[in-house]
Specification:
This protein is α/β, with parallel strands linked by helices. It has a single domain (about 45-305), classed as Metallo-dependent phosphatases (Purple Acid Phosphatase, chain A, domain 2), CATH 3.60.21.10. The chain is about 25% helix and about 25% strand. It contains 7 helices and 15 strands. The strands form 2 sheets. The protein has an 8-stranded mixed beta sheet with strand order 1-6-7-8-9-11-10-12, covered by helices on one side. Strands 5-4-3-2-13-14-15 form a 7-stranded mixed beta sheet. It is globular and about 45 Å long. The termini are far apart. The relative contact order is 0.16.
Length: about 300
């Protein structure tokens, strides 16, 4: 930070303009960890399956049911889009909730070296968010190098955002604008992940002003798809300016839909799978909405393509 007093004055001014900001957990008023760009040189192979889910961490029967099917899904990667620990996040890296609500339900995958890429949710922010940095250091299958980060896998790039605090958008804005030319160079396909949706027919609805402005300016029209959770359902919100919007927040609890589906939506337990296709060499993504039911098992209820 080049000028602590200038930054403090800016934060105080912004706080005065926003009388009801999100809380600053753990005393953080600035980006707590330098943003990270993780470059992976290997190309993601044809047929690679990426599983996306969120809003899972209840330790209840619903989470355990979904987890039992996830371990049979053949996920090569997992992308968790927040609310990993209900209701109030972790008290620290040794909190038993980590085992009960995250590690044990997905133990076979985690110990089978399936990488879990983490984005935090608003309930995680009720606790010690830095605990996840320490847990990522302890467990090689947990990927959380910073609160927001990017990976470049040859011709496919991934960016995970932190959508939880209004003050956190300021460093992210600078980071993505400065880093995007380097991140996106050579990327034929770009995917973004975060907790809060841009559009949603679920109970929470469309993004509020802070999230909406950030996502509209830095995600919509830039990425080929944006995956989120927060609403406890599965929904395909269609495309906005070329960005496919998908909500996958049904891995642990449900709420009824609040509006008519835009493209597709269902209040049912499950997750979304992304399968990389390389027909002709250029990458594309086949996505499927998977509903899990204790009586009917695994069902594919909606599908599409991102390219």
């Amino acid at each position: 930070m080049k000028n602590n007093w200038t930054t403090l004055l800016l934060l105080l001014t912004l706080a005065a303009c926003n009388p009801d900001p999100s809380p600053e957990p753990d005393g953080k008023g600035e980006d707590p960890v330098p943003p990270t760009v993780v470059s992976e040189n290997s190309q993601i192979a044809d047929g690679t399956k990426i599983c996306v889910f969120g809003d899972s961490g209840t330790a209840g029967d619903e989470q355990m049911l979904v987890a039992s099917y996830l371990k049979e899904e053949g996920c090569d990667q997992v992308r968790v889009v927040g609310d990993i620990i209900y209701e109030d996040g972790l008290e620290g890296p040794d909190d038993q909730q980590f085992m009960d609500k995250f590690y044990d339900p997905y133990k076979e995958m985690l110990e089978g070296d399936v990488p879990f890429y983490i984005a935090l949710g608003n309930h995680d922010y009720n606790g010690d968010t830095k605990a996840w940095l320490e847990l990522a250091n302890r467990h090689t299958s947990i990927i959380f190098p910073a609160f927001y980060y990017a990976e470049v896998w040859d011709d496919i790039c991934f960016v995970t955002f932190d959508t939880n605090t209004w003050w956190g958008f300021f460093p992210q804005k600078d980071w993505i604008e400065e880093s995007w030319p380097e991140i996106s160079e050579g990327c034929s396909l770009s995917l973004a992940f975060g907790h809060h949706p841009y559009l949603s027919v679920g109970d929470h609805g469309d993004a509020d002003s802070d999230d909406k402005d950030f996502l509209k300016e830095h995600v919509i029209g830039r990425f080929d798809a944006y995956f989120s959770g927060h609403d406890h359902d599965l929904s395909d919100e269609g495309e906005v300016d070329g960005t496919r919007l998908i909500v996958s927040g049904a891995a642990g609890k449900l709420r009824p839909l609040a509006a008519k589906p835009r493209d597709f939506a269902i209040s049912a337990l499950g997750y979304v799978t992304l399968t990389v296709k390389r027909e002709g060499g250029a990458p594309s993504i086949d996505y499927e909405f998977i509903v899990i039911d204790s009586e009917n098992g695994r069902q594919v209820v909606h599908q599409g393509q991102i390219k």
